[in-house]
Amino acid sequence: MASKTGSTPATYSPSPATHKKKRIPIADVDWVRPDSRGFYQCRPAYLRTGAVSPAAGSAYAEFGNTKVIVSVFGPRESKKAMMYSDTGRLNCDVSYTTFATPNRGKGSDKKELSSMLHKALEGAIILESFPKTCVDVFALVLESGGSDLPVVISCASLALADAGILLYDLVASVSVSCVGKNLVIDPVSEEESYSDGSLMITCMPSRNQVTQLIVDGEWSTPKIHDAMKLCLGACSKLGEVMRSCLKDVVTDLKE
Amino acid sequence: MVGLSVGEKNFIKGGIAQDLRNDGRKRLTYRPIYVETGVIPQANGSARVKLGETDVIASVKAELGKPRVSHPDQGKVYIYVECSPTAEPSFERRGGDELSTELSTALERSLLGGKSGAGAGINPASLLIKEGKVCWDLYVDCLVISSDGNLLDALGAAIKAALSNTGIPRVQVREAASSDEQADVDVSDEEFLQFDTSGVPVIVTLTKVGRHYIVDATSEEESLMSSAVSISVNRHGMICGLTKRGGAGLDPSVILDMISVAKHVSEQLLNKLDSEIEAAERANEGEP
């Protein structure tokens, strides 16, 4: 047993000042991103379906430090729906675990993220294919490493595909942050916290249709043009990665 | 919401295609805006805006608070929208929650800028009293009294008017004995500082009906929309926030076109709104 000296030793707690307090000199063009990516380079994506077996469909996504698991239940009877409706209903819920953020969070669900996820997915689902019933999408952010909502949206559409819900197209989502004069794609939480503006696009790559677009901060029109073009390019690449993930599952089953 | 027969829907859609809406407006014309400031005496600033039949009240209250650890040189602004059941019976209790959250988030996005506080309509650094210790917390509370479409634009205008009516009390900081203690502040009852609202943006919602966009949709027109984009533009023509509402997908070129239309419309709206706010303030001062 290790002997303890005199007074009770203080328990170790990570110093909150491990990340830089001062603003990085953003005007410096040679500024390197924390994970040494290029400005226009997304994080490598790890996507797997079938993570949760009791669910109709599920997916797990890991984009750098952002880890999200989404499970889809349905189409099933909805307790909330009182009225007959000849289109199906979509119910989304996004929540964070208490250990997702560096400071312990309350783990409560975020209503704004749930409604944003709902809007992003509702344009892609063929709601007429499941009248009178409801599809529940539950997203859980296990670790929040920046760009949470885009990862949740992409992972949710993969889970919906895994559940066999009829979709017009997969939904891919990417966000871009404006840090000083530079556009930085797929920001991490550090970059997000000192961003001067952010733009998040959710699109259906094969149809070239934007289902959701959220911009905050100050932007000039040419900048928005550039950011949108950048994001749409990244979305189509992400769409291909998602498609190959789904195909891999089928080829594995065949073997 | 509004129940429309197929015939009525076709009538409205056909009219919009010919640049003629139900109330005689053109596609890019706003309804008459009526602004009244100083409607809530206990608040630091308040305004009531009527856009046709849509009626909203915004009130601004400033309270002393502590800045966030991550941003010690900035004050805090909270925006909250409540949809009153007087507007729609479905808003009673929890019914209006979803719409309230959507509107509050969209307004916060338009007015508070990026995470670092850059590009904000309300400059949070101007709310600071003593770095790291004391700052102003601005609570902007909005109430929707009557809803006839285009709530977001009306709320944006009401907040702009309320902020130009806001007076923040002058504060004198008495040095604390030790730097850890709460700094003592002397809040003056007499002197007030007016808020600078030249940077506050205005929100323009473009609703896509069929192949055309309309500005300032009534609730009938909104029930026909395939999607809507709300763009917040400030005096310098910079886009301060953008939210796409409605589920249908939009082609990216359509969105870029909507942005340029919104910029064009926002100039007229800004000028109209500024003159209305000035007139309302003068009417206020005229009263004894």
TrEMBL record, chain A:
Instruction: Read off the SUPFAM superfamilies from this record.
Output: Ribonuclease PH domain 2-like, Ribosomal protein S5 domain 2-like
Q: Which organism is it from?
A: Capsicum baccatum
InterPro entries from the UniProt entry: ExoRNase_PH_dom1 (IPR001247), ExoRNase_PH_dom2 (IPR015847), ExoRNase_PH_dom2_sf (IPR036345), PNPase/RNase_PH_dom_sf (IPR027408), Ribosomal_Su5_D2-typ_SF (IPR020568), RNase_PH (IPR050080)
GO CC annotations on file: cytoplasmic exosome (RNase complex); nuclear exosome (RNase complex); nucleolus
Keyword line: Cytoplasm, Exosome, Nucleus, RNA-binding, rRNA processing
Q: Which is an annotated Pfam family here?
A: RNase_PH
The Swiss-Prot or TrEMBL record describes its family as follows: Belongs to the RNase PH family.
Q: Which GO terms describe its molecular function?
A: RNA binding
Ranges of residues in domain Exoribonuclease phosphorolytic: 41-165, 169-230
BP GO terms, sorted: nuclear mRNA surveillance; poly(A)-dependent snoRNA 3'-end processing; rRNA catabolic process; rRNA processing; U4 snRNA 3'-end processing
Q: Where are the transmembrane segments?
A: none
CDD domains, per database record: RNase_PH_MTR3
Q: Where in the cell is it found?
A: Cytoplasm; Nucleus
Which Gene3D superfamilies does this UniProt record tie to the protein? Answer: GHMP Kinase, N-terminal domain
UniProt name for this protein = Exosome complex component MTR3
Query: Does the record bear Transmembrane helix in its keywords?
Result: no
From TrEMBL, chain B:
Q: Which family does it belong to?
A: Belongs to the RNase PH family.
One GO location term (cellular component) = nucleolus
Q: Molecular function terms in GO for this entry?
A: mRNA 3'-UTR AU-rich region binding
For this UniProt record, give its keywords in alphabetical order, as a comma-separated list: Cytoplasm, Exosome
Could you provide one GO biological process annotation from this protein's UniProt record?
TRAMP-dependent tRNA surveillance pathway
Say if the entry is tagged with keyword Cytoplasm.
yes
Which superkingdom heads the taxonomic lineage of this protein's source? Answer: Eukaryota
Where, subcellularly, is it found? Answer: Cytoplasm; Nucleus, Nucleolus
Q: What is this protein called?
A: Ribosomal RNA-processing protein 42
What Pfam families has UniProt attached to this entry? RNase_PH, RNase_PH_C
- Domain (Exoribonuclease phosphorolytic): give its ranges: 30-169, 199-263
